[in-house]
Amino acid sequence: MTTALAGLATAIPSTAQTAPTASPPGSDDQAATTTTATDAPADGDIIVTGYRGSLQKAINVKRNANAVVDVITSEDVGKFPDRNVAESLSHIPGVSIDRRFGEGEKVAILGTDPALNRMLLDGHALASADWGGNDNDPSSRTFNYSLLAPELVDRLEVYKSPEPRIEEGSLGGTVIVRTRRPLDLPANSIFASGGYSYNDRSDKGNARGSGLYSWRNADETFGVLVAATYDKQNLTRAGVEFFGYDNTAPNADGTYNSPFVNRASDGTLSLKSPGATITGGTIEDLYKAASPFGINYAYFQQQRERKSVSGTMQFRPSSDLTLTLNGTHIDGNYNNYSQSMYTIPGAWTGNVLQSATISNGVVTAASFGAATSQSAQLDTLVRRTSLKTDNLNLFADWEGDGGAKVNFSGGWSRAKGGRNPEYLFNVQTKLPYSYAFTNNTATVNFVGDLTNPANYFTNPNNNAAQIEGRPVLTSTGAQLVAAQIGGLDYSVTTDRDIFGGYDATIPVSVGPFTEILLGSRVTDHVNRVDARGINTYLQQSLDVTQLGVTALTTPDGTFDGSGGMGNATKYLNLPQQSVIDILANAINSPLVTKVGASTEVRETVMASYAQANFDQDGLRGNIGGRLVYTRDISNYATTLSNTVNPVPVPTRTVNDYLKFLPSLNIAYSITPKVIVRGAAARVIARPRYEDLAAATSLNNVTLDGGGGNPNLKPYESTNYELTAEYYPRAGSLLAVELFRREISNYIFNTRTNAVFFNSLTGALATYNVNQPINGGKAKVNGALISAQSDIWGGFGLQANYSYQESSTSNTDVTGTTLNLPYLSKHTVNVIPYFEKGPFQARVSYNYRSSYFRTIGRLGSREMVAPYSQLDASASLNITKGIVLSVNAQNLLDETYLQYNATPDRPTAFYKNGRTFAAAVSFRM
Fold first, then answer.
1. Contact 800, 783 (CB under 8 A)
2. Helix (H) and strand (E) counts in the chain
3. Buried b vs exposed e over 308-324: b needs ≥16 C-beta within 10 Å?
4. Beta bridge partners of 828
5. Is 795 a residue whose pLDDT tops 90?
6. What are phi and psi of 567, to 5 degrees?
7. Within the chain, what is the greatest distance between any pair of CA atoms?
8. pLDDT tens by residue, 861-878
9. Which has the closest alpha carbon to 622: 660, 665, 676?
10. Which helix (H) or strand (E) holds 901?
11. Strand 442-446 versus strand 564-565 pairing type
12. Four-residue CA torsion sign, 359, 365, 368, 373
C-alpha cells in the first residue's frame, strides 16, 4: 500500500485487543501479525482503547512474534508529538535519530549507521531521493523519513533479528511501515484533520491538513480508499561551522604544515608575519599547534512543503482470492537559501597575523591585519529543490481452506530530487578581523562595517575560462578571460525500483514444524545522478554597490543563543532574487552536461528463500536461509590527475557477488508471562550508490575531495540477539535485550594526496582526496532495558535505556580508533502519560550521549555532543468524533553541537528552535 494512504487510516480507531485479521496482501510479516486466541476479548471482557489500548496492541504483536521485534501502532504514532516517522521510531529501545536540521531524519538501529538499515513499505523497498543540501548520505539505501508524517502509517515494526522472508540489506535492523486496506475498515470510514504549527526560530506558522475516505460494499468484496495530506514547515537554522582544523598531525618526517610559521631547511623557525605576538606558548608551540581551517557564520532558511495523494482498490472475486492495487504520489518542495560568511585564517591571512593565543595545542584566538587578497568570503546558495516519489503496486493473494497461501506481487516506484538549479554567488572582503572560540562559543569581530556593501567585491582574478575541460568562448570565438563569480548547478538524482516475486506458505505437520515458507524476488534498481552546470564570470571586479541589486543585512537576533557572537553575526544579506539577478546579468557559459559529476548505478538482485516455522511445547520460531545474487553496473567519469583543463573520461565497471544468509529465531515460553528469545543470523548491507559511482568531486577552496569505488563488496555481519520478556498483566512489559554485531568487510575511507586542476585559480593544486575501500572490521555490543505499564488513576509510564559500544579497525588522521557512525553509548527515553475520560496528556524526554557522525573536512572526526529533546502533547475528545490536540517540540530549545574529536575543537553550533502546534480532527 502507499505511504499517504496508510496513515490517514491510522486515524481510524482500532480496538486494542481484537485479534488482527490475516496478513494483508503484500505483507512480508506473517509472524508479527499472528496472534493467539487468547488475544481476542471474551464476552464481558473490557476492551481497552485510546493510547493505552494502542500500547497493549503493540505489546501483543511483540509478544506473539517469533523474531525480536518492537512495534508502534497507529494510535501510538498519532498520539506522539512527532513531526515524522523518524521521531516516532526514536522512542523504541535501541533506536536513535539525528536532528541536525531540527527534524528527525537519520535512524540508527542497535548502533549501526542509518545508511545500513532499510525501510520497507509493507515489506517492499521504496525508491528514495534527497533534497540536495544534506552533506551526509545523499544516496544511501534508506528512505527519507522526513517525507513520512506520523499520521501516514498504521503500524511501525522494527525487526532487530531478520527472518529469511524479509528482504535483506540491513545490518542493525529493518523498519517495516504497515498500512491498511479498505476491506479491513468499516464502510464509509471518514477522517479529516486540520491544524497550525509555529516555529519560534523562523517566527513563522503554517497550516497542515489530511483527509481519508474508505468504502466497501455490503458483501465485503470490493473496496476503495483515497487519502490526501498537506504539511508545511518553515525552518530557520543559524550557527557557526568550523571547516576542520589545520596542522592536526605531523608529517611522516616529523615536520608540520603550520599556516603561521616558516621552517627553514636547517630547522630554524620564523613567523610568516614578523612582529606577531604569541600568548600561551613559544614559536615552536605555534608551529605545532592546530588551528581552525575556516570559521563560518551560517544562516540557513528552508520551506518544507509536502503533499501526498494515494488510493487503494481491492477486489475479492472469491473467498480465497484478493486482488489489491494501490498507488501514491508524494510531492515535497524543499526550497532553501544558505548564506555563509566565513574566514580561512591560515590560508588567507596567515601572513598578516598580529597575535595568537595557544591553549592545549590549539590556536584558540588570533587577530589579523588587512589581507593582501581576501580575509573573508560570503557565499550565497539559492536552491530550488523538490522531491517527488511515485509508487504503484499490484498484489494477488490466494488462501486455501487448509492454511496454504500464495502471494504474487509486483511494483514500481520512482523518486526524483536534488538541486534544480542551485544558484551560487560569492563576494570577498579584505577587512582585518579577530577570532576566539571556546567549547560552545565563537566570536569573530571585523575591523570595519561588515554590513556595508562597499566593503565586498567580486573575484578579481581573471583567468582563461573553461568548463568541463573545454574553453568558454566569446562571441568572436576567442577564449573568455574573466574571473568566475559563481554559477548554476543542476544535480538531480533519479532513483527507480521495479520488483516482482512470489511468497508461498505450505502447512506441514512434521515433528515440531508447522509451516514451510518459500519465495523468490527479482529487483531491478537504477540510481542516476544527472549533473549540468553554468559558470558565471565578470571581467572586472565590482563591489556590491555596483551590481545594481537590493542589499540587506542579516535580521536582528539571527544568531542569538547559537553560540555565535561578535559583529560577524551581522553581515551583508542578499535577497534570493538579487543573487539570481546578479548571475543573469553577468557573463554565462553555455549550459553543459557535467560528465564528471554524472553517474549511474544499475543494480539487479535475485533472491530466493526457504523458511521453516516450528511450534511445540512452548518452543516456537523459524529457521532457514536466503540466497542472494547481486550485480552492479557502475557508469561514471574519471577525472585525470596532473592534467590542465582535464576532460572527464567515461568509464564502466561491473561487479557481482553471491551470498547465502542463514538465520534462526527461537522463542520459548517459560511461563505464560515469561518469554525468552534467541536469534542468530548472517546479514549484508550493500554500499551506498554514491560510493559505487567512482566520480571524483573536488572543493577548489578547501582543496579536498572525494571519490567512489565501483569494486566495493557489501558489508557483512553475524548478528546475535538474546532477550527476556516479562508480561505481568495486559498492557505491561519488562524486557531485557542483549545484542552483538560482528561486522566484516566494513567500508571505510582512505585519504591520499593527488594533484588536480583548480578551475578557480587556473593552476594545478594538491588535493586531499578520500576514497572508500573494503577491509575494515567492527563489533557492536549492547544491552537494552525497557518497561511500560499503567500505574494508577489514569497515569502510566514508558521508559527504556540503551547501552551500546563499538570497536572498529578504522582510524582517523591522528591514528585514533573510530566508533561506528551515529552510535551513542547511552540513550534514554522517558514517557509519562495520563489518560482518563476524554483527556490525554504525555511528555516525551529523549537523551542520547555523544556520537561519531562522519569524517569531515581535512579528516576531522566529527562528533555530536550529548543531545536532549523534550516534547509534550495533550488532547481532548470534545465529542466522540471530534478531538482537539496541542503539542510542543524541543521545549528545551537544545543547541546541536559538533566537535572534532574533543570538545575543545568545536566544528558546529546550530539552533533550530521550538515548534508549537494545534489541530482539530474529525472521524466517523
1. no
2. 9, 53
3. bbbbbbbebeeeeebbb
4. 801, 847
5. yes
6. -75, -5
7. 95
8. 888 999 999 999 899 999
9. 665
10. none
11. parallel
12. positive
CB atoms within 10 A of CB 203: 12
Vertex 687 angle, CA 112 and 625, to 5°: 75
Alpha-carbon gap, residue 427 to 458, rounded angstroms: 5
Residues in CB range of 676: below 8 A, 6 or more apart: 667, 668, 670, 722, 723, 724, 725
Contacts for 484 with CB less than 8 Å, ≥ 6 apart: 459, 463, 465, 535, 536, 537, 759, 760
Residue pair 242/252 in contact by the 8 Å Cβ criterion: no
Say if residues 5 and 179 touch (Cβ distance below 8 Å): yes
Beta strands in 639-673 (DSSP E): 649-671
| CA 517 – CA 504 distance, rounded (Å) | 6
Identify which of 369, 365, 375 has the alpha carbon closest to the alpha carbon of residue 278.
365
Closest C-alpha among 468, 595, 498 to residue 126: 498
For 716, what's the count of Cα atoms within 13 Å in the CB-facing half-sphere? 14
Q: Coil, strand, or helix at residue 902?
A: coil
Q: CB-based burial of residue 913 (10 Å sphere; 0-12 exposed, 13-18 middle, 19+ buried)?
A: buried
The pLDDT of residue 42 = 41
Identity at 734, one-letter amino acid code: L
Q: How far apart are CA 213 and CA 178, in angstroms?
A: 18
- For residue 476, give every residue at least 6 positions away whose Cβ sits within 8 Å of its Cβ, in sequence order, or none: none
**Residues 320/400, Cβ–Cβ less than 8 Å:** yes
Cα–Cα distances in angstroms (integers) from residue 425 to residues 298, 316, 575, in the given order: 15, 59, 12
What are the tens digits of pLDDT across the range 101-145?
A: 777 777 888 888 888 888 888 888 888 887 766 554 445 677 777
- Say if CB 667 and CB 676 are below 8 A apart: yes
Query: What values do phi and psi take at 23, rounded to 5?
Result: -55, 135
The answer to whether the CB of 241 falls within 8 A of the CB of 292 is: no
Q: How far is CA 37 from CA 18, 62, 624, 870, in A?
A: 10, 15, 27, 39
Please give the single-letter amino acid code of residue 327: G
- Whether the predicted model's global pTM rises above the 0.90 cut: no
- Helical ranges in 122-228 per DSSP H: none
User: Which cell numbers hold the place of 545?
Assistant: 554597490
Q: Cell triple for residue 844?
A: 516525551
